[in-house]
Structure to design on (330 residues):
């Protein structure tokens, strides 16, 4: 057995938090050899509901679950945390844009970044799920300047998984047959799914799905607007699929990505593909031994480049807005 890993979930009583906790407790994130300690942060009004979730976690009799603490105190929630899933934030409702969420949610990440800086373990790795996820991750990172920047990620794995699933469905194969695709940019409808290097089995995506119009049109639109389509159908934003994607992201960070494949992550840019340094945009990446490396050297067609630039510009606008609101670098 490995040493226990302490994991903080913020917004633990919410829809995504509820789905996450049980996957983590059952070993779905860190595997069957790693015990976990959960720290569940909520706002005071939702602590009772989170306590109910903690009761259910106990009732699950999970052999790997060593300890559960429910609290409304960020200091206690991040105390000694090795991993943090920052979900606690208001979700988008029908008719809202992600930018509408910045004013509502951004301040949460400024405060929680400070709590991470002061209380988390030295090896803290944080994934922001709460929207607007990329800019909230930038706010979190700026509030914890002594923690290495590459430890702050935003969730783009859901966009990645959506792209994989659309391609698999169209080709009539399982999702596991699709590899080497990724999604550039912001977790918003400006995102840029990229299949140029993708494979389905041993064929290129463009050979396996011989329909350029679909690949360049409906596929891209479906993936980029899937969040709104789910809100429209469910009357609530995606929850189980978002939790599953967050689990995939953290599992790969800890245990490594699949041999011969890459996935999408968003972490502070180190200038790869001309994305400005520090910008938290979706890029292709591989994880080995707990470290991510961005896949470099991929050719970008001019039209794709333009769309990536537009999505990155949107991220820079969001950051400028956050700075104006006094929540980025405050
Ligand atoms: P939800 O409303 O069901 O749950 C959110 C929870 O966060 C609530 O229980 C709330 O009390 C709690 N919360 C609010 N402020 C908090 C704070 N300061 N500290 C701790 N907890 C706090 O929402 P949900 O469906 O779980 O979604 C959560 C967030 O995730 C939303 O912002 C949503 O837009 C986002 N989301 C992101 C992705 C992605 O791919 N990045 C996908 C789906 C949803
Ligand atoms: C999603 O992509 O499902 C979430 O980010 C929810 C949303 O607001 O789109």
């Amino acid at each position: 057995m490995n040493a226990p890993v302490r994991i903080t979930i913020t917004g633990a009583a919410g829809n995504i938090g509820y789905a996450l906790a049980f996957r983590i407790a059952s070993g779905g994130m860190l595997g069957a050899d790693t015990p976990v300690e959960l720290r569940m942060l909520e706002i005071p009004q939702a602590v009772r509901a989170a306590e109910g979730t903690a009761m259910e976690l106990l009732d699950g009799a999970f052999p790997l679950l060593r300890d559960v603490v429910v609290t409304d105190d960020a200091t206690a929630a991040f105390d000694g945390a090795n991993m943090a899933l920052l979900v606690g934030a208001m979700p988008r409702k029908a008719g809202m844009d992600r930018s509408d969420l910045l004013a509502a949610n951004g301040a949460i990440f400024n405060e929680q970044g400070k709590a991470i800086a002061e209380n988390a373990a030295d090896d803290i790795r944080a994934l922001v799920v709460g929207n607007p996820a990329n800019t909230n991750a930038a706010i979190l990172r700026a509030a914890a300047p002594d923690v290495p920047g590459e430890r702050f990620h935003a969730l783009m794995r859901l966009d990645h998984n959506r792209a994989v699933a659309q391609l698999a469905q169209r080709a009539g194969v399982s999702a596991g047959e699709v590899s080497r695709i990724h999604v550039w940019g912001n977790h918003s409808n400006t995102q840029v799914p990229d299949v140029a290097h993708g494979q389905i089995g041993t064929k290129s995506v463009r050979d396996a799905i011989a329909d350029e119009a679909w690949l360049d049109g409906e596929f891209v639109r479906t993936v980029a607007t899937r969040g709104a389509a789910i809100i429209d159908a469910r009357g609530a934003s995606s929850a189980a699929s978002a939790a599953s994607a967050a689990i995939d992201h953290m599992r790969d960070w800890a245990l490594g990505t699949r041999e011969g494949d890459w996935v999408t992550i968003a972490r502070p840019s180190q200038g790869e593909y001309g994305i400005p340094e520090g910008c938290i945009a979706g890029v292709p990446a591989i994880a080995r031994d707990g470290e991510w490396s961005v896949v470099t050297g991929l050719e970008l067609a001019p039209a794709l480049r333009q769309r990536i630039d537009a999505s990155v510009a949107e991220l820079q606008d969001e950051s400028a807005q956050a700075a104006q609101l006094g929540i980025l670098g405050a």
Remarks:
- The domain at 5-154 is CATH 3.40.50.720 (Rossmann fold).
- The chain has eleven helices and 14 strands.
- The longest helix spans residues 302-324.
